[in-house]
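Researcher: Predict the fold of Bacteriocin immunity protein.
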Amino acid sequence: MFNKKQNQELSPDIMAFKNALEEVRFTPEVEHDAELIEIFDEAIDKAEKGEAVQTIYGRLSYQITEYIQTHHFKAPKPVSDFIHGSKRSILSGLTSVPVSWNTVH
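Model: Structure tokens for Bacteriocin immunity protein follow.
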């Protein structure tokens, strides 16, 4: 009936990733874009359910790439910073994320 991972405590990796997602999601630039809100809310929900960081990031990367392609190759700065790894200060402690975000497919 209930997903067992929902009842378990989230790993430090997933919590750090979820916090990074929320930091981007609640920026003023993203707050006013329904499409990005939906993308980041979906990723946050998956993190809260304990899904693997690589899986969430892979899907998120794909969705943001689609977003950028359909918006004249532009995205809000917090989104592009996140996807290009400048959030490493927040994410550097993650053990389940590759060193280079660009290698995740």
